[in-house]
Specification:
Layout lengths: L1 E6 L5 H15 L6 E6 L11 H9 L16 H4 L2 E4 L2 H10 L8 E3 L20 H18 L4
Parallel strand pairs: 1-2, 1-3, 3-4
Helix pairs in contact: 1-5, 2-5
């Protein structure tokens, strides 16, 4: 199963979800999964995740250093089995861009959460260190259900 995580610039939220998902899949030997992340905008194409994202993830044992930002591309809608929007604005954008035949693949990331069901994963970009930790908390709580571990 191929899963794509989508946020705005692909340097904070979606690479965090991508990295945590990769870590969980490796830890539980879930070889059937492939992951990627992308942005609704090409602001940071080719860049590594935000330094604060990298540091927060590293403190919890996640290595995001190999990830590079890229925008969502038309073929992503066909190639990926599940496309998870980090917030409702991203979901609306994806619904607008997605061909009707593939819209069933779109979902809000936190629709898989028990604690934050249906909420937006908050953007930490203009925030403090605690905001990056909050994104990690939300990813760690949600991703086991995305991967069928909970």
């Amino acid at each position: 199963m191929r899963i794509l995580f989508v946020c705005t610039g692909n340097i904070c939220r979606s690479p965090t979800a991508d990295g945590v998902a990769r870590h969980l899949a490796a830890k539980h030997r879930l070889e059937q999964f492939e992951f990627d992340s992308a942005g609704t905008h090409a602001y940071h194409t080719g860049e590594a995740p935000d330094g604060r994202t990298l540091r927060a993830a590293r403190r919890r044992g996640y290595d995001l250093s190999m990830l590079r930002a890229r925008p969502v591309q038309a073929e992503d809608f066909e190639v990926f089995d599940l496309i998870l929007a980090m917030d409702k604005g991203h979901l609306v954008w994806l619904q607008r861009e997605c061909p009707p035949a593939f819209r069933h693949k779109l979902a809000l990331f936190l629709s898989y959460s028990l604690r934050w069901t249906g909420e937006d994963l908050p953007d930490p970009y203009y925030g403090e260190s605690a905001d990056f930790e909050c994104v990690l908390d939300m990813c760690e709580e949600t991703l086991p259900r995305v991967l069928g571990l909970a």
